[in-house]
Design a protein that fits this description.
CATH architecture: 3-Layer(aba) Sandwich
Strand order of the largest sheet: 1-2-4-3-5-6
CATH class: Alpha Beta
Order of helices and strands: EEEHHEHEHEHHH
Number of strands: 6
Radius of gyration: 16 Å
Strand content: 15-25%
Amino acid sequence: MGSPRTRYAKSGDLDIAYQVLGDGPIDLLVVPPGFSVMEPSWDWPALGDFWRGLARFARVILLDKRGTGLSDRVTGVPTLEERMDDVRAVLDAVGAERVALLGGSEAGPITTLFAATYPDRVVALVLVSALVTWSAVPDLEAATTRPNSGCSNTSTSPGAVAYPASCSSPLVWTETREREKSSGVSSAWRATPARSSAYWR
């Protein structure tokens, strides 16, 4: 089974790419972490199987956040509100009135803000290794501290960004040999150093 057909939802002037698989009674929208994107993720067997597993009981909706994957590129770093509105645009495009949201890493704040803004449209919120803040602040000392946290670029590939598993979920950050064996999959988890630095500020 290949990847689902990619479609587009209009969010302001931008086209936001999304895919739908399954026809279960629950609508489940997945907001991906960081720079992970839809198309190459299907070439990684473990992740493709995970999407198909979810589709056994739900209509699964995947998207590429603005500036990533097959969605339109942007200048600068989009605001949390803009990225949240992309979620709304995709849900409207597929006719999903009430959904369960799944967000990992920095997608946690996006899905949480959506749930707080549109409580009548959200039946469940699932957060995986979600971030509240990247750097430590006085009232949240457990957050990552820099520069001695070890959360720095560990990739040896030119122009690539990777982080050790201790910084977040291994599913999100570590570049394993299994991914590299899958054709094209490594591109799903990478960004240029400049883009990554701006994104995480």
